[in-house]
Amino acid sequence: MNAINIGLVGAGTIGGGVVKILSAQARFFDEKLGLPVKLTRIADKNIAVLKTLPVGSAICSDNADDVINDPSINIVIELVGGTGFAKALVLKALAAKKHVITANKALISEFGPELFAAAEANGVSIYFEAAVGGTMPTIKTAREALVGNEIQSVQTITNGTCNYILTKMTQEGLPFDEVLKAAQAHGYAEADPTLDVGGGDTAHKVSIMASLLFGGFVPYESVYKEGITTITDDDIDYAKKLGYAIKLLGVIKKDSGSGIEVRVHPVMLKNDHILASVNDVFNAMAIEGDYCGKILLYGRGAGELPTASAVISDVIDVARNIVTGNPIRIPMGYYSIANELKVAPIDGISTRYYLRFTVLDRPNVLAAIASELGHNGISIASVIQLESKSDEAVPVVIVTHTAKESNLQTAVKKLEGMDFSKAKTQIIRIED
Amino acid sequence: MNAINIGLVGAGTIGGGVVKILSAQARFFDEKLGLPVKLTRIADKNIAVLKTLPVGSAICSDNADDVINDPSINIVIELVGGTGFAKALVLKALAAKKHVITANKALISEFGPELFAAAEANGVSIYFEAAVGGTMPTIKTAREALVGNEIQSVQTITNGTCNYILTKMTQEGLPFDEVLKAAQAHGYAEADPTLDVGGGDTAHKVSIMASLLFGGFVPYESVYKEGITTITDDDIDYAKKLGYAIKLLGVIKKDSGSGIEVRVHPVMLKNDHILASVNDVFNAMAIEGDYCGKILLYGRGAGELPTASAVISDVIDVARNIVTGNPIRIPMGYYSIANELKVAPIDGISTRYYLRFTVLDRPNVLAAIASELGHNGISIASVIQLESKSDEAVPVVIVTHTAKESNLQTAVKKLEGMDFSKAKTQIIRIED
After folding, report:
1. What is the rounded CA–CA span in Å between residue B52 and residue B11?
2. How far is CA A306 from CA A20, A43, A110, A136, A154, in A?
3. A148 and A278 in one domain?
4. pLDDT over 90, % of chain B
């Protein structure tokens, strides 16, 4: 072997970053590995974009099959995105006995077992450090550094778009829609932001992390998810008054009887919580293990070069495995198809809650709310009811002590059926 | 091979933690590796301590040679500490073709090249994740995750004792000596705290990180170091007034002409600096690469189980290398003896400074100070001089704009020679 030959499919933002780093660092890889890492082929539908990149001697084409069909290619980097074309491409690459590196969280989260089985059958590997948390070494830490630990919990902010929006809503007092539009104008949010603001992107990432940390497969569909679209500037205001920050959090908790918890939803975090001050497009992940205690990773979760840097760390890992003949293909215990992990239903969790009722301002409403909550075993920690400025509906904000989700949902549903209730109740879980 | 046999030398705090985790997780390693990891031998001078640990079927002795001389042992874990007996032990283990895992930062920092050459000659490896930052995956991140980056800088809090002392001085307004005594009583500081509070421990760690990140050898002796013993409660007070926190920081900066900067000293960090809120015994490391941007690791830097957890991650890495026949012995580019890196002299750095002069309260003193600083090209950003309560010497606190260290030292020396100067000037560097 004279060189490790890389074929890149998809030269968009991250792919462009990969081309730039491979070009800038060629000599460095050569020295470190003792073998050149060569970008041999690049394919992108939009072949014109390749003219703007330092492609060197790479053979460029608009057909991904040119990469797959080149027998000299050892590693295919898939940066196409999506789960249609990308899935077919990865399966073809694996069948051609090429190692695959991808940043595609949806693909790994939704089709992991099928892909890993194909890799195993063909004696090659799939690496995906860039799929979760951009530049933070989340996969490596879960798969290697913490492997001797039994994991207690994970709390993670892994969607930069949502974090940017919530930060701006908090800092500038603007409503969701307005901040979303600004984020789209700045390129921090997609034209169709559904996957980000709806929580799907974070759900993809936590399903991967839960699978890695608990050594089985957590299907994407089993992850409970709520997005941030219903968070109002009122909620942000009340959170501030109460000493909390609102964040979209991915939460994983170990099985304590009814399955592991794997859920994505807005939360309130006390201002001194380690994740409360993670702002703008930054990502962070706190992992608590029984031996290591709580560790935190923090960094840029997205962007051309940060994400490309994570892809490059996979290139080095795979190249090193090739050079040394290391036959490890699948991270230990990961995505065993035989071991689909049981995920606890959201109804079964227990936590504290922020509730914002919208009710008519008349006697006995607070008493009715308190009474119904009490009936369901929910104890009130604090209440904010400000003087009404009109005859219209007013907000009543209640923070509860720890309560069971099913009890809380029952109480809220009952209260929403009462004639003083004027709108859907806002429920935001509080995480410690 | 039926099992990977571990020999542990040193069953103190961390060693005890390793015994506990290996015992608790035996089945887990078995499943993950497909081969049992067996604690086969333990040696400790104080053999009585072994009676309190879950040693299982391990053969216990008070003689480390019993471990070295057992041909079934694949991996020796050295947790003796120090650089005398421990160095001889590690060299004997390597000569006997056993892989070595150690948490010994002094040993790696001071004798790395010799040890790595011995490992290379014997076809075995040395792993040392626990040597820097306890449970934070610092070594793995530097060696693997960021390997495609050119590193710009590192800022790290890696000495829990110093961070605990500075935190308590800040939160409780107590002087250094008093807090040190309390820390010793709590077991957070050694009876002889010199290596911690003098900065030597942090210097060991940053010499290792600089070696890893820049692919050469940074000798311990080349690291500039100052400890925290001269920090007074006055400095803490002024820092608060100015909006800073005082921390003992390890700093690494890339070569910009006269060598890489590798230094350890107290610094002032703006309160919104990411490391300013790392308190108590916690550690953190911010690494900035040209592609990844700034990433942060945070976690417990010491303690029985957290540090043992890092040792166990090495056990898994080495065991996996043995199982797969991976011949990688030395982290890429690491500690090449042929490549001793040039470290810039402290005189050559440029930064901002906090200066606390102790001077007689009489006319023209401030003018003299300002003038001497100006002569040396040092521009003043802010001054605090409070009304004097007596005829005794008063503090004059000055924060400078960026200045050259050599100019600053010249100016301060000159001012200390003037008759109004009543004590040594406190100099604390300010890091951004």
Report:
1. 10
2. 12, 22, 24, 9, 22
3. yes
4. 76
